[in-house]
Amino acid sequence: MSTLDQAAQGQLDQPEGQSPAAPSFGARARIVRLPTQVANLEVIVPYGLIAEINEVMLPEGETHLSRLDAAMVDWRAQRVPLVSLEAMLNEPLPTIGQRVRCAVMYGTNPDIALPYYAILLSGVPRSEEVTGESFSEESLGDGSIWGMTALLGDRRIAIPDVRGLELRIDEMRLRFEQEFAPPAQ
């Protein structure tokens, strides 16, 4: 597993005070840029975490996603939670309609029942290959949902702490299911 994958999954074991390294020099990693409206950052994830880029319909009457909630959407005959990174970071949420584009991600944590989840997108993702030399000024995340931030070319990028993100999404999903569960007989 590359350092990019480890950073995304929150699995970096760095000595205290050291920042995580980007993928080793010469090592290539395929990434996907997720177009969001997160301020001052471009969000990237390892290509292998993407199950599908798709458009989904929000449930009737739901055209907002709050910081504490995930909308449950239908994807390939399954219900998956859809979240907004902007809302999770307390940033303004993009204006959305009933039909939205999302990145459906593979769940990576075997300890929670979250095989898939979706992240709201505000454009078309791009896939590209990067090397360790591509990154500069790497640093640990800021304690929110980022596992690592770095400069990639002239752009500031952020890699989510996927395990931490999945735990937050699973908590949202459980709250949603409890709120809308039929009353016990």
What attributes characterize this protein structure?
globular; alpha+beta; 3 helices; 185 residues; five-stranded mixed β-sheet
Can you walk through the features of this model?
The protein is an alpha+beta fold and 185 residues long. The chain has one domain. The protein has 3 helices and 11 strands. The protein has helices spanning 3-8, 85-88, 162-180, and strands at 28-34, 42-46, 50-57, 71-75, 78-83, 99-106, 116-120, 126-131, 135-140, 146-152, 155-160. The strands form 2 sheets. It has a 6-stranded mixed beta sheet with strand order 8-1-2-11-10-9. Strands 3-6-7-5-4 form a 5-stranded mixed beta sheet. A hairpin with a 5-residue loop joins β9 (135-140) and β10. The longest helix has 19 residues, at 162-180. The radius of gyration is 17 Å and the shape is globular.
Question: What's the structural blueprint in terms of helices and strands?
Answer:
Blueprint: H1 3-8, E1 28-34, E2 42-46, E3 50-57, E4 71-75, E5 78-83, H2 85-88, E6 99-106, E7 116-120, E8 126-131, E9 135-140, E10 146-152, E11 155-160, H3 162-180
Parallel strand pairs: 2-11, 5-7
Antiparallel strand pairs: 1-2, 1-8, 3-6, 4-5, 6-7, 9-10, 10-11
